[in-house]
Amino acid sequence: MSETVLETRDLTKKYNSFVAVDHLNLQVQAGEVFGLLGPNGAGKTTTILMLLGLTEPTSGSVRVLGLDPTRQPLSVKSRVGYLPDQVGFYDELTARENLTYIARLNPIPTPQLPARVDEALQRVGLREVADKRVGTFSRGMRQRLGVADVLIKNPRLIIMDEPTSGLDPEASLEFLEMIRALKREGITILLSSHLLYQVQAVCDRVGLFHKGRMVLQGTVNELAERVLGGAYRIQLQAEGDPQAIQSALQRVDGFRNIRQTGENLYTMEAARDLRPEAAQAVVQAGGRLYKLDVQTQSLEEIYSAYFKEVEHGTVQSSRVR
Ligand SMILES: Nc1ncnc2c1ncn2[C@@H]1O[C@H](COP(=O)(O)OP(=O)(O)OP(=O)(O)O)[C@@H](O)[C@H]1O
Predict the structure, then answer these.
(1) Does one domain contain both 23 and 78?
(2) Closest ligand 1 atom to Cα of 21
(3) Most buried residue, 1, 210, 247, 298, by CB count within 10 Å?
(4) Domain of 139?
(5) Structure confidence by residue, pLDDT tens digits, 79-94
(6) Residues near ligand 1 with C-beta < 6 Å?
């Protein structure tokens, strides 16, 4: 049975009359990578601060590893790793010296320190450069050192706020690979990011924040179904009577949003890969099929479709439960 590592119930934070986080209900299970998405000012950082006990909720409750961060902030801090978007290190000290310095602030028995520091450096791929000054490190290396820093306390949960902002594509890919490795070790990760393709690449589930509310929550496929009508987009090119082809496609159980997008071009959404059914429909309508493609929907499309709907007032930005 899966274990809930993080749970909020109607968690709310107000700054005077301004509601920064509005009745947030969130559950993250052990071993999951959960992505927090949303435009600037949506409430992601405020949520993270409440999870860490760094700011007090106005109402509602939070449990992190079974602890209440408001009442037990130090216990939460000692068990949860937090990686801000930029980690401060002493440039003139080496990676090993920096980690040793920080590790001394944790309740780790002194004889175990060197081994714990080496192990953490190994896990983030910085063992080779352990004795180089951090001032010579690239931003990607500094971020990985930030992860090594949180790994020293053997956390079961790591919260990362925009961890790849400012990293070049290669460093970002390496960082994402490291997140996958941490997941394989069973570590739960909560990741806040604007970079949707990166979130899609590593997250099991995502939650979309809008004006303090979590308006969508689920796997990328679930969100695609809710917002776009299907997780799969099927595109085909076929010659023949457009009306006959469209009505044949409409008779297929499972197609939504069937559109003619150009001469002999048709696009539709589905919850499953229904390419064989699409091919059959074209043939039944007397058409000649030239091309048939399927794509899974990207988080970018879901995100922009959702905000377009909000703009046009076709969805209410109501919160999910
Ligand atoms: N200490 C504060 N006092 C007053 N308002 C605040 C305070 N901290 C945050 N806010 C407001 O609360 C809202 C949510 O901010 P928050 O930093 O949580 O958003 P975010 O989703 O993390 O955005 P970003 O991606 O820009 O970091 C914003 O409108 C912000 O201006």
Answers:
(1) yes
(2) 14
(3) 210
(4) 4-224
(5) 899 998 888 899 999 9
(6) 15, 18, 20, 38, 40-46, 209
